[in-house]
Design a protein that fits this description.
Largest sheet: 6 strands, parallel
Mean pLDDT: 95
Distance between the termini: 16 Å
Helix content: 25-40%
Number of strands: 8
Strand order of the largest sheet: 3-2-1-6-7-8
Bound molecules: 2'-O-acetyl adenosine-5-diphosphoribose
Oligomer: single chain
Radius of gyration: 19 Å
Low-confidence stretches: none
Order of helices and strands: HEHHHHHEHEEEHEHEEH
Strand content: 15-25%
Length: 242
């Protein structure tokens, strides 16, 4: 696939680029997306049944173990060419904001610095009761472990269904989306709001909107450019054209 010449011209003259990534950008690193069928041990659960405060209250051990399984999977995953190209792209524009729905931290491991994590980060842990990040705790063998400060249960520092998004990050993401010249939406099914509203806010603000995804989504018919393919192939092509 070749990148349309007009898109390259728009990118070359852009001073402010905003990017929204979803699970698809980590698919080629071996991290399953949300809408992929859950594999193996977790096949009988859907994320919606595990990633909620209710599920955690009902069965904290199960939810903690599911995240432990995902933490290990992510720790063994490597940034792929899409992550690396986005990290390189950051240096090519006056303003560059990378907004991600992913909690795997692979953008940071690829070298991206301007990362806005809308849904938290699976490598961080917080107290369920105090909502404060906990960096370490005594290994008492409890599953989930207990907060050293209040004795409450520890949980992953990620946004669960039915939970509010982090306000600061959401405001930053909205500002970036409404003030950019070009908005790249990469590897997201564009179904989970409010993150999914960002490309439409960019459209309304007059930005050039580009979608990179092997499948079509609710954004596809509205985007100015649709690069139908894998992020690991398309994003390096965009970078090479700059
Ligand atoms: P999804 O699993 O909903 O969508 C993944 C998207 O990536 C799909 O549109 C796929 O077509 C696309 N895709 C798959 N492989 C790809 C590849 N190699 N390159 C590019 N795209 C590819 O994941 P998200 O859209 O990220 O929220 O889901 C959004 C949110 O829903 C997640 O952050 C999570 C989930 O519930 C919370 O956990 C709060």
């Amino acid at each position: 696939m070749t990148i349309p010449a007009e898109l390259i011209q728009q990118l070359v003259k852009a001073t402010h680029v905003a990017v929204l990534t979803g699970a698809g950008v980590s698919a080629e690193s071996g991290v399953p997306t949300f809408r992929d069928a859950q594999t193996g041990l977790w096949a009988k659960y859907s994320p919606e049944e595990l990633a909620t405060p209710r599920a955690f209250r009902r069965n904290p051990r199960l939810v903690w173990e599911w995240y432990e399984w995902r933490r290990k999977l992510v720790a063994n995953a490597k940034p792929n060419p899409a992550h690396l190209a986005l990290a390189a792209m950051e240096k090519r524009f006056e303003q560059f904001h990378l907004i991600t729905q992913n909690v795997d931290g692979l953008h940071q491991r690829a070298g991206s610095t301007a990362v806005i994590e809308l849904h938290g980060n699976i490598t961080r842990t917080k107290c369920f009761d105090e909502d404060t990040v906990v960096l370490n705790w005594p290994d008492t063998g409890d599953v989930p472990p207990k907060c050293p400060n209040c004795g409450g249960l520890l949980r992953p520092d990620v946004v669960w269904f039915e939970e509010a998004m982090p306000e600061t990050e959401m405001n930053l993401a909205t500002q970036a989306s409404t003030n950019c010249d070009v908005f790249l939406s990469i590897g997201t099914s564009t179904v989970v709001y409010p993150a999914a509203s960002l490309p439409f806010e960019a459209l309304r603000s007059g930005a050039i909107v580009v979608e990179i995804n092997p499948q079509s989504t609710s954004l596809t018919s509205h985007a100015h450019y649709v690069l139908q393919g894998k992020a690991g192939e398309m994003v390096p092509l965009l970078l090479a054209a700059l």
